[in-house]
Amino acid sequence: MQFKDLHLDESLLRALAEEGYKSPTPIQEAAIPAALAGEDLLATAQTGTGKTAAFSLPILQNLETPKAKGSRPTRALILAPTRELALQIEASFRTYGRHMPFRTAVILGGVSPVPQIAALRKGADIIVATPGRLIDLYRQGHVRLDRVEFLVLDEGDRMLDM
Known about the structure:
This protein is α/β, with parallel strands linked by helices. 43% of the residues lie in helices and 10% in strands. It has helices at residues 10-18, 26-36, 51-62, 83-96, 114-122, 131-139, 156-161; strands at residues 76-79, 104-107, 126-129, 150-153. The chain has a four-stranded parallel sheet with strand order 2-3-1-4. Helix 2 (26-36) packs parallel to helix 3 (51-62) and helix 3 crosses helix 4 (83-96).
């Protein structure tokens, strides 16, 4: 099977080709069609098997292209237990969505919230966040989640253990 067999958008296929990806991994082959069909998923796979692409590609494809040039509502929220993982996930969204007009923001602790708040004010279609900082910014009124269509708990078992 090839990525094109998964009926992904041409802009996603182009980004995958630019990254040298030719064939989906088993988790991607199983998850992408279900996610594209709007099904809820619970999946596990070992590190390095392509889980991030398994959820980010369908999200990018299923998000409606933004119409507004200015502030836009957040429509996808990805929660990760660590700063490092949140940064990796956000980089993947930027990589796979490089030919698409979506804005991402990464929200995490341990750094100044000022640039994160600025990114939120501009509008972020996709937020990748660690729970603590997300809760802080939500309580301060900087984050609105009333338009979220896609929610991913990456390493959800680990977050529940915390």
